[in-house]
Structures are given as structure tokens and as C-alpha cells.
Design brief:
The structure holds two protein chains of two kinds. In chain A, helix 2 (14-37) runs antiparallel to helix 3. Chain A has helices at residues 3-7, 14-37, 41-67. Chain A is mainly alpha-helical. The two termini of chain A are 24 Å apart. Chain A is elongated, with a radius of gyration of 14 Å. Chain A has three helices and no strands. Chain B is built from ten helices and no strands. In chain B, 17% of the residues are buried. Chain B is an all-alpha fold. Chain B folds into two domains: 2-57; 68-141 and 178-192, no CATH class. In chain B, helix 1 runs antiparallel to helix 2 (29-57). Chain B starts with a helix and ends in a 19-residue tail after the last helix. The chains are: A mainly alpha, B mainly alpha.
């Protein structure tokens, strides 16, 4: 299995999914905290979608692990 | 609200770090329930709160006037001249904190969405360039934005000019005649006087 294929969610264990998901959610929350503190238009345009996507990816990872029986 | 969001973020991050360390050993129903709350529910609620808060911040006058080209429009709100924006702002006829957004977001379906999309173009113009010369509205100012507040006001309905001829009120409501034809200027600029 290539290194890239090994990173795909369907090749990860539930534990790995939860670990990656927590990191994605933490990163997303940190980015959004910046948008809460700094109301710069450019930062908002970049960080709101990026932070939201990271949190949602973390959430999907958790749901994935949960559905598989975590 | 800012501090609630920040404290919430810190609490969620701490819980996520704890979950990350203990995930492998989670076996009981209670532990999994805790994981559900920490990873599945809290971040989503926090995301909703943060986006709503930031969306509110983007409606404020300070945000709109943070771009250089909009500074003079912000200053025009404090002008002594009898201009629409200034009289509305100074006499508290609009929510002062969100004055730009209140008047410049058409009160139609997806008016706010259109404003956000235009806002993206403004960010592009501010940071990457792409606009030369005087800025202007994308389309003529809609009477419906004025009539949202004034439409059923007695002072508007009984105003002599608005009823002369009697069908003039209907023309205003239909947008056949712009409110700004009589009530100009919208903004008064000191540097143009």
C-alpha cells in the first residue's frame, strides 16, 4: 500500500480516525478564534472557510469512526 | 460574546487533546458518550456560534470602512450637511452599529447572500486591485430598501409631495421613480464641497 493510500480514511483504524479528527477540529477552532479576534476582511475570507472545513472534516472523521463501531 | 467564544474554544481544545490521548483506551459506553459530546457535538455548536459572531462583525460600520476607499463614506455619516446617510445615521433612524449593512442590503430573498458575494469582490479589489476611479453601486438604489421602513409611516404617506399627483405613491412603490431623485445626495463628501 502506498503512503498516500495508507492515509485514506477507509484504510485507517477507528483510533487513527479519531486522532486525525481531533487534530483537524483543533486546527479549525484555532483558525476561527483568529477570525473572532481579528476582523480583517482578507483574513476572514481565507480563515472562515478553511476553519469551517477543518472542523467539518474532523467531525466527518469522528462520524466515520463512530459508524464503524468506535 | 468574544470571551465566551474564546473560553469555549479553549475548553473544547483541552477536551479534544484529552480525547486524543485516551481514545485508544475508550471501551465503556460512558467514555464513548463523552467522545460523542467532545468531538461530535461541541465543535459543531462552537462553529455555529463563531460563524454567527463573525457574520455580525462583518455588518458593522467599522468593518465596512476598514477598506481605504470606504473611509470617506464612513466620514460622510458624520457630515453636517443634510445628506440621506448622515441624517439617518445622526438621528438614529438606522441601527448605527450596522448602518452600511442596513441600508445597502436589499430586503429581498437572498439579499444578504448577494451582499456577501459582492463583499468577496470588494476584498479582491482592496487587496489585489482591479478597480480604478470612482466607485458606484452595482445597480440603482432600490426604493424597496427605503420603503421597508418608510413605506407605512404616516409621515411618508401623508407627505404632500408624495401624494401629488395621488398615483405618485404607487409609482414610488413600483420603483418607477427613484426616491433619490428628490432626496439627494445619499452621501455628502467634505472633499467635494
Amino acid at each position: 500500500m502506498s503512503r498516500l493510500a495508507a492515509l485514506m480514511p477507509w484504510n485507517c483504524t477507528d483510533y487513527e480516525l479519531v486522532r486525525c479528527g481531533t487534530i483537524a477540529e483543533i486546527a479549525g477552532i484555532v483558525l476561527l478564534v483568529i477570525t473572532v479576534l481579528v476582523h480583517n476582511p482578507l483574513l476572514l475570507v481565507i480563515l472562515i472557510p478553511l476553519g469551517s472545513i477543518l472542523i467539518l472534516l474532523g467531525w466527518i472523521a469522528w462520524v466515520w469512526a463512530f459508524v464503524r463501531g468506535f | 460574546m468574544t470571551w465566551i467564544l474564546i473560553l469555549g474554544a479553549i475548553a473544547i481544545i483541552v477536551l479534544l487533546l484529552v480525547l486524543r490521548r485516551t481514545a485508544k483506551a475508550m471501551a465503556t459506553r460512558q467514555e464513548r458518550l463523552l467522545a460523542l459530546v467532545v468531538m461530535g457535538i461541541l465543535p459543531i455548536f462552537w462553529l455555529g456560534g463563531a460563524v454567527q459572531y463573525t457574520d455580525g462583525a462583518m455588518k458593522k460600520v467599522e468593518f465596512c470602512t476598514s477598506c481605504h476607499v470606504m473611509e470617506r463614506y464612513g466620514e460622510s455619516l458624520h457630515a453636517d450637511e443634510d445628506a440621506l446617510a448622515a441624517t439617518h445615521f445622526q438621528n438614529n433612524r438606522v441601527d448605527r452599529e450596522n448602518a452600511c449593512y442596513v441600508c445597502h442590503t436589499s430586503y429581498v430573498a437572498f439579499g444578504g447572500v448577494k451582499a456577501k458575494i459582492r463583499g468577496l469582490r470588494h476584498v479582491q479589489a482592496q487587496y489585489l486591485g482591479g478597480h480604478e476611479g470612482e466607485i458606484a453601486l452595482y445597480e440603482p438604489y432600490s426604493n424597496s430598501d427605503c420603503l421597508r421602513c418608510h413605506g407605512d409611516a404616516r409621515s411618508f404617506l401623508e407627505q404632500e409631495w408624495h401624494n401629488d399627483p395621488p398615483e405618485f405613491l404607487d409609482e414610488l412603490r413600483a420603483g418607477d421613480v427613484s426616491c433619490l431623485e428628490c432626496h439627494e445626495p445619499a452621501h455628502y463628501f467634505e472633499d467635494e464641497s
